[in-house]
Design brief:
One of its GO terms (biological process) is transmembrane transport. It holds the Pfam family BPD_transp_1. Keywords: Cell membrane, Membrane, Transmembrane, Transmembrane helix, Transport. Belongs to the binding-protein-dependent transport system permease family. The chain has about 300 residues and is mostly helical. It folds into two domains: about 1-80, no CATH class; about 95-255, Orthogonal Bundle (MetI-like fold). It has 16 helices and no strands. Helix 6 (about 95-125) packs parallel to helix 10, helix 10 (about 175-190) runs antiparallel to helix 13 and helix 13 packs antiparallel against helix 16. It is flat, with a radius of gyration of 27 Å.
Length: about 300
């Protein structure tokens, strides 16, 4: 109320000077410089580093070789063609490797997310002996790169007869330390009254998990699911080691086969087309889940 009174008491000239002062401040050299350095410049750098190579790859996949290897390159294709995608389909069993990638990603991601949900719930709501020690082991697993365990995994899977099989790709990576950690922290923040009320109604752990914890945690679960799907889809080193025949290869490994076939500079367009085929499904998944991801990552940030 005092502020309103003081505004009413201002003369027209004073209000004009105040507006003029705000415009002057907005277009002052210091304000413009700070806006450019802290706003536009980081955005421009991010666009150059992240978006420009991606755009160049997509546009190059529609260019003939003469427009890629040239002294006068252009950003947009002058003579657009789909021949690069046709060459990829002819040189690599595209449907086979695509089907293998979808199978491995769906099965592996589903089991991973399910294990992460149940493990996180058990660590929070069930009195598991040594739960803190188990959680410490999960934290340690987060710090260790997966390449460290590749040799023991290779020996184990080979002994089980899983070499050159799709289940041999899936089995060693069924546990996700990141997903378990994220969901455990999320479950700990849920109101205990929800679960106490369910217990009064006679609900067991199965109902409390799938009728209370999972529905109210969908953004966090969607975040874990997206990270898991992307990792499974882009996984390259382990499938390359465990798979020998082209009929069992996943899409990233098949793309590597394409690279070994196409070693000439004139085949860059074919390589770009193969790379686009790898990333397009992930872009679709991200576009479908991005609002859940943002909600899951920011959940709990504001109380």
């Amino acid at each position: 109320m005092p502020e309103l009174i003081s505004r009413q008491q201002l003369t027209r000239e004073q209000r004009r000077q105040r507006r003029r002062g705000s415009w002057t401040d907005a277009f002052s050299r210091q304000n413009i410089l700070s806006t450019l350095l802290t706003g536009y410049l980081p955005i421009l750098v991010a666009l150059l580093v992240i978006v420009l190579p991606l755009a160049w790859m997509i546009l190059s996949s529609f260019k003939p070789p003469s427009e890629i290897v040239t002294l006068n390159p252009t950003l947009l294709p002058q003579d657009p063609t789909l021949s690069n995608y046709g060459d990829v389909a002819r040189r690599v069993p595209l449907l086979t490797v695509l089907g293998n990638s979808i199978y491995v990603t769906l099965i592996g991601s589903t089991v991973k997310v399910l294990l992460a949900i149940t493990t996180a719930y058990a660590l929070v709501y069930i009195r598991v002996p040594g739960a803190n020690l188990i959680f410490l082991g999960i934290l340690v697993a987060l710090m260790v790169p997966p390449e460290v365990s590749m040799l023991p995994n290779f020996l184990t899977i080979s002994a089980l007869g899983g070499r050159d099989t799709l289940w041999g790709i899936i089995l060693p990576g069924l546990g996700t330390a990141f997903g378990t950690f994220l969901l455990r922290q999320h479950f700990k923040a849920l109101p205990k009254e929800l679960f106490e009320a369910a217990e009064l109604d006679g609900a067991g752990h199965f109902r409390k998990l799938f009728q209370i914890a999972v529905p109210v945690s969908l953004p966090a679960i969607a975040t874990v699911a997206l990270v898991t799907v992307v990792n499974e889809w882009n996984s390259f080193l382990w499938p390359l080691i465990i798979i020998d025949s082209p009929e069992k290869m996943t899409l990233p490994v098949g793309l590597n086969l394409l690279q070994s076939i196409e070693a000439q500079t004139g085949s860059y367009g074919i390589l770009m087309a193969g790379a686009v085929l790898v990333i397009v499904p992930m872009l679709i998944v991200f576009a479908a889940l991005q609002r859940y991801i943002v909600a899951g990552l920011t959940q709990g940030a504001v109380k």
